[in-house]
Amino acid sequence: MLRFVILKHVIVLVCALGLAVPVAASSGQLDKLLKDIFPPGAAPSGAALGEVRIAAGLKEALQIGAQNAVNLTGRVDGYLANEAIKIVMPEELRRAERTLRAVGFGQQVDEFIVSMNRAAERAAPAALSIFFDAITAMTFDDARRILSGGDTAAADYFKGKTTEKLSAAFRPTVKQAMNQVGVTRQYKALADFAQSLPFVNVDAVDLDSYVVGKALDGLFHVLGEEERKIRTDPAARITVLLREVFGK
Which of 26, 67, 114, 117 could form a disulfide with 79 if both were Cys (CB 3.0 to 4.6 A apart)? Predict the structure, then answer.
């Protein structure tokens, strides 16, 4: 029964993305198929040929999902226009934001917020190759856990496997982008003025780390939302099979 449920969800996920399950292969091709799909040592010796083929479809589906998430975030206004992931003022300055706007620093505050989001948007494309590496390294057990997991199981898998590498990849791009648009200079000017206000204590902020962290939070959020659509959103059920499976 568990195997049937897992296979059903894989088929649904593959069909949701418009992918075709590979045609049947002979038993003599199983070893080669396993090597092509899973990294050395990760291929299950007792896996049925059908399971392996469908797992290959899952990997392809995850590649498309990752591509969609990167495309959505790695474009102009990918962060800024999405209220769910928009990078706002650091907490240290957020408490003083209303006062800063009231005393004529509204434009500077807006420019600072825009520049942080632009830096994140420039960094997002660097995630794609790292996501693809994580997919390539996926084991059969990983695939099973994703398929039988919650609505964002794939996004959680990516988060656990790629956060450290993504942080390292994003940092230089974010730093360069923030230097180009003057984020650090803008922050210093705002922080210096905020510090002069009564009852305001502005602590030092590592802006690079702040923007990198928020950029990753936003990327994983969008990745999870893309996955959730495939699993739960009726509007994403674009095939007869999907409507039959989830319409009941």
Answer: 117
Q: Per-residue b/e over 134-150, b at no fewer than 16 CB within 10 Å?
A: bbeebebebbbbbbeee
- Per the listing, tokens 């300055």 go with 93
What is the per-residue pLDDT across 20-64, written as a single tens digit (0 to 9) for each? 334 344 444 444 444 555 555 555 555 554 566 556 656 766 887
State how far the Cα of 214 lies from the Cα of 191, in Å rounded to an integer: 20
CA–CA separation, 216 vs 79, rounded Å?
Answer: 11
pLDDT at residue 131 above 90?
Answer: yes
Residue 63 DSSP symbol = H
Spatial separation of the C-alpha atoms in residues 159 and 182, rounded to whole Å: 30
38's tokens: 């899973």
The position carrying tokens 């296979």 is 7
How far apart, in whole angstroms, are the C-alpha atoms of residue 129 and residue 139? 18
The pTM score is 0.74
Tokens of 167: 């942080």
How would you class 154 by CB atoms within 10 Å of its CB: exposed for 0-12, middle for 13-18, buried for 19 or more?
Answer: buried
Place of tokens 């003599």: 28
Distance CA 207, CA 113 (A): 12
pLDDT of residue 183: 75
